[in-house]
Structure formats: C-alpha cells, structure tokens
Amino acid sequence: MENYEGENKDGWDADLDGDPELVRAGESTWTQVDHKKLPLLKKKQAAPILPPSAQHHPRPPFPVQRLWRGSRGQPLGDSKRPKARKFEADPDNAGKKAWRARQPYKDTVVVPLAIAGAIRDNLAGLALDQGCFLACVDGVGLGLWGTSSDVSEAKRRILSAIGNDRSQKNSSFRKLGSLTPKLRQRAETRFRNDVKRNCYRQIPLPEELFDAIGTFHWPHLEYRPEDVLGPSYEALDPVRMDCECYINYHSDIHSFLVLGGSKQVQAALLRIRRTCFQLTAQSINPVRLALTHWRASIVPSLVSLEPYYGPNTITASIEDVKDVDYSPRGEVAVTDASALEDATKRSILNVERARMTLENALKKIHFYIGTITLVIRLGTFVLRQWAPPEAGVYELEEYEDMTKESQFRGEVTEELGNVDDHVLPLVQAANKLLVPQDVMTATLADVRPKFSAVFSFEDGAGDLLLIKSWHEEEGSEASVDQLVEGKDRWVRVDRDTGKATHLATIALTDLHTGSAWQFDITATRAVDEAKIEHAYTDFSKGVKIKPDVALGSANERFVNWKSVVPVKSLRQEVQYRYNIAQTDYTLDLVRFQDSKFPAGQSTIRKLPPEVSKSCWGLSVSRAEWATMFSKNERLPIGTYADWPDDMATWFPPDFACDSESSDGFLQLVNKLEQIDKLFHPKRENGKQGQSDLPEVVNQE
C-alpha cells in the first residue's frame, strides 16, 4: 500500500489497450468503517498489454558500437518526460490563510442586493489586490481578513466602487424598486448556501462530527502535493465545495483525509483519484511512430538520404545554408516476389499499427487539461536523430528497424516540400476529390481566402500566442474590402520547446518521394483573456492587415501593428478551405510566412527580422474533433472529458457507405493517397524515372 497510487498511475501510462477506469460515484466497492479507521478502496492492477511482436518475437537491440547522429547540431538522447503542471488556482495570501484557519475577520462590508453581479464579483479582486481576502459571513455580510492597514484600504476601495456603481445607476436609470419577499428569500437562500459551501474550504471545527472519514494515499514521490495543488492545496477547493467535504493533507502518512457525509466522501475520493489521473495525463510520454507506407506497386530495396532544404530566409540562397536536413529516399526496386510480398504486407500492417496507436493515444487523454488539436499534415519526412548507414545506403529492413529504435527521431515538415508554386491551381482542379465548403460557392476556383496572424510573445511561464483571423463578410460580392475580424484566441505553449506539446505523432511515409502524412495530436494551454495584461490586449486592438497585399505578393508582409510590446515571432497565413467529397473532412491549403524578431528588441529601437520565404502547407481535420476536444480545454479538477474514443466516431465512413460494414479510417487513408498524388503524379502508375532517383549521400 505504500506506493499504491504511484503503481496505479504507472500502470495506466504503459501501452495499455484500454483507458484508465472512468469510475463514477457508486460504482466501486466501499467498506464502511467507524471514525477511528480509514475506508479501504481495493483495486486490482492489470498487467501491461504488449504487442504480440514484443511478447513472442523480441527484436535484438541496435549494435552498441553504432553511432547516432542529430540534425542541425542538436544533442542526442531520449526526450525528457514532460513534467506535470501545477493546477491553476489563486495562491493564498495572508488574509486567505487566516480565513482558512477560521481566525476572526478584521472588518465587514455590507453590499446591497441591488448591486449588479458583475461588480460584486470584482469586490473580491479589489480585496486581493490589497493582500486581503473577502468572503461571505452568515448574518453579517462580507468579511475582510488581513492586516489592519490592508483591510482598511481594501474596505475604502470597495465602498468607493459600490458608491460609483450606485451613482451611475441613479444617473442613468430610475430608482430600483425593493425586492419582493419571494425574491428576497431566494437571495438570502443563495447567500446562506454560498456561506455553507465556502466553509468547506476552511479547517473543520474541533467539535464537529462526521458520518464518514475517507483517506486517499497520494503518490508524493511523483507529485509533491504542495507543488501541484498549492501550499494550502487550494486547487482542491472546487472538490471541497462541490462534494461538501473537508479535505486536509497529512504529510506523516502522505494521504488526504476527507471528512463529511458517506456519499459525499466517496464522491470526493473519486475526484481526488481523477486528479492524479489528470496529473499523469500531463506527463505521459509522447507517442512517436515513423512507418513506411507504399502508395504504388513498386517497393525499393535500398534507402538513401537526400539533402532537404526547407524555407530559407528571403536574402539567403542554398549555398548560404550550413545546416542541412536529410530525407529518406527509396532506390532500386525489389524484384524478388517473396520480398515484395513481405514489404507490401508490412505496409498494410503499418496502417493498422497507426490505427491502433492513434486509438490508444485518444484513450489516454480523457483527463488531459488543455487545448488539444488533431490534424493530419502532408509534408516531407526528415530525420532528426538517426544512425548513419554504414555502407552509404540502408537495406530496406535495416532502415525500418532503425525507425523502431527509441533513439530515432523524425518529423514531417510543415511545408509541402520541394514542389512547384502551382499548388493552388492543382487543388482547384481536383473537382472529383474536393468540393467547396460553402454550398453557395459554385466551383473550387470561387473559394475565397481567409487570413490569419499568429503572434508569439516571450514569457517565462511559456511563450504566449495570440491568434487573430479575418474573413470576408457574408453576402459581400467577392471583395476583400469588407473583412470581419474573428474572436481573439490566447494560448500558451511549452516553456522548454516554445512549441505546442506533442501527445502523439504518427507518420506514414512513402520513400519514393519522401512525402508523408503525419497524424498530429498536440496541446497548448488555454489562457483566459480576462487575465491577459492590458499591454497585450491593447496590442491586439492595433493589429491590421492589407488583404490586397496578401493576395498580390507572396513574400511581402501584410500584417501591421503598433509597437506596444515586443514580438518574438509572427506567422501570417492565407487560407483556402475545402471539403473532401462525400465526407465531413476539411482540407486546409495555407500559404504561410514566418518572421523571427531578434531577442532583446525594444519597442523604440527596431531591428530587422529574419523573414523566411513563403511556402504552402496542407492539412486535413474535422470540425467534430475540435468540438469533442473542447471539453478538455477548461476541464474542472478531478473530472474527465466524456467524449467517445472509438475509431468509428473519430473516423466515420463516407456518406454513401454503410456505417456498420465500412472502415472509415481505411477510407480516409485512401483519400489521403489520392490527395498526395495531386502533387506527386509520377507515382500514379507506380513508376519513377531513373533520372528522378536521389543521389546517394554517405553520412559516415
């Protein structure tokens, strides 16, 4: 029992087929005990389910003497396990600590019931700004805790705010009538209930008796409770109030003690348990898979490495680039029928492996708190950490074995790759594959663009991103002069990487051209706009775009803003959105350009940014994915998102197919192959000219 919850957590983090148990109150076996004993919740742990290949056919490790190489001088080694984030909760100041300890209040404030709800919510903020705490006191009104000087200043500000609000109402409206007896009784009942619920955030009274006492052994070695829940464990306040229980931590037994009614204690214990699952979900190891997938009848027998030059800066040329990425390319077609059959079977199994991995990844993020997105990107597969071929080229099986090693790292580029600039006409001509998203739009060529800008601001807690968007007003006659600005989105990215957190990355690569479809599950932290500093909100108001410039020039900046705060980076986008025929999948074709601004710049002294050449990106998604993941964005503590995690829901079959007998995931993969052939038509018949084969690069 010493590390029971730690083992429970680790068992879920293994490659299990199922999700963590979604236990609801009343579905577990509970043992009723007297007040001197602790209730014991028993749970059997299932052994981790390993793939059949790992159970019966263990793959020998890579030779120890073989050296691994990292791209762009990056250090080698396995990625670090993400750390669990602290739950967001206002930390206790001196006044709040005194209130939790049931010390007497220093002063009171009487708030008229006629005051609007908005200003009543602001009163607590005024008290916190002065280092005090404001709470309801039954029979008195609102009490103030803190030092005498702070309480006096806080009361003065609160009374001033109340007076200003009432004077504004008197000058603008007629005098408010008194509350009817029924409304007054209703208001008093709400007040008493608020006082009662808030009492559970304090320590219990010594003479108070309880129907049940429960204990939860906390995995303190993995997650120090004061680090993730706050010094006073204030993150558990919603659990205390919702379940009407007292929750205290006893460090000598590393357990939370829960006191209250029998059903309430059971519900609170389950909420605390799910809080552990939420912490584990934030720190699970990301899933990375790099799989081969043949989209033609020819399979290569050798794999070489071809230099790949990404979007360079506008002023640079290929000769100026010192750090080069490498992308795998297939060579010399397999002629042996048996070897060809084996390679083809592995490709089919890789699709199934991608499906299973994606399904397991979805089951593990019910408890994840954050803004989660699932997109499927088309790009070029490049190596980030690999073992160079000993003979200048890899045997096909040698390459596939290397990609399965834990040291291996690879990723799919955001840009489509080394394709020509005629991307938009190719997409506009795919009438059999794509349809306009708007039913009122006649042809693919009539689809109007949308514009967006992603600003990055440096911050110690993780870079802050501002996402702005613009689209044409509905009913406007194909004119960009009338644009409607969308709602601002604020998110925070990982502090160490400066990017979104990758939860699952699964790439299906065709080695004939190096193009790959990558299933990406990423997460950021949602930021409440009310908590954004005024300097950033003022910056957002000053952002303007020039749509005529965006449509006329590919490498000219069309986003302008006032220099209120320094910007770390900017990505400007022109987006064309379509639907895949007979499905509800959305295809986004985006032309984007990145600008990176020098560190340490000021709003007065501007240094020229490093601007990359514009390039095209393509991704596939579903609106339903965003709807289901929206439940994770502001997930209350001790709860989980209850969206379905079966593949039939996430990847439904085509509209014209039978939902029971059709495989929606395979249908999607087939459509992705067709989209890829728009940009790589040479593989249409499974042929590739000898002159198109990449040059062998020796990495020894």
Give keywords.
single chain; 700 residues; Ribosomal Protein S8, Chain: A, domain 1; eight-stranded antiparallel beta barrel; 17 helices; 26 strands; DUF7905; DUF7905 domain-containing protein
Question: Nearest-angstrom radius of gyration?
Answer: 30 Å
Mean pLDDT: 80
Helix percent reads: 25-40%
Query: How much of the residues is beta strand, in percent?
Result: 15-25%
- Describe the largest sheet: 8 strands, antiparallel, barrel
Domains, number? 2
Number of strands: 26
What is the SS-derived class? alpha+beta
Q: What's the arrangement of strands in the largest beta sheet?
A: 11-20-18-16-15-23-24-26
For the terminal residues, how far apart are their CA atoms? 53 Å
Overall geometric form: globular
Low-confidence stretches: 8-29, 33-65, 169-177, 683-700
**SS field, number of helical segments:** 17
Protein name: DUF7905 domain-containing protein
Domain DUF7905: 343-653
Pfam family, one: DUF7905
InterPro entries: DUF7905
